[in-house]
Amino acid sequence: MLRMIGYGENLGSGFPLILNAWNEKHWIKPELQEQPELMQVKLILHIQNDVSYSSSNDPINDPINLTERQKLILQMFSDDKNLSRERLCEKTGLSDATAKREIAFLKKAGYLERVGSLKTGHWIVVSNHFLL
Question: Alpha-carbon dihedral of residues 23, 25, 27, 31, nearest 10 degrees?
Fold first, then answer.
């Protein structure tokens, strides 16, 4: 009844949205497990980052397709190694949570490295090939 008046959706209609969101966040692809005895399909959502790169952590030899936002973040850290996350958020309009997530992804992927302490350290962009 609610679906007929525009307050509900068809079963499964949100699945493409879930897949797109997971892909955008670089999370591990959702897993579907069929449970025929229960007449159900179980959707398992993993929220760890899926960083598909070689064990060498060398972004030059095995590059990851970066988003424009990630390229912008790397460019900003390349221009100002002492840039704080707070200032990054101000300049880009990103939320703090998004900035944290993107920085964590770039660090894990081997593009960004923190040298020194959180308070007095600075950022190093490991590779500038993303600018190509």
Answer: -40
Q: How many CB atoms lie within 10 A of CB 100?
A: 13
Burial class (CB in 10 A: 0-12, 13-18, 19+), 111: buried
pLDDT 10s digits, 34-76: 888 888 878 777 665 544 444 444 444 445 678 889 999 999 9
CB 76 within 8 A of CB 83: yes
- Judge contact between 18 and 45, C-beta under 8 A: yes
Amino acid identity of residue 5, one-letter, is I
Whether the per-residue pLDDT at 93 is higher than 70: the answer is: yes
- Report the distance separating Cα 126 and Cα 109, nearest Å: 10
How many Cβ atoms from other residues are within 10 Å of residue 89's Cβ? 16
pTM above the 0.85 mark? no
- What is the SS3 assignment for 129? helix
What mean pLDDT comes out for the span 17-24?
74
Contact between 106 and 76 under an 8 Å Cβ cutoff? The reply is: no
Question: Residue 59, by phi and psi: left (phi above 0), alpha (psi -120 to 50) or beta?
Answer: alpha
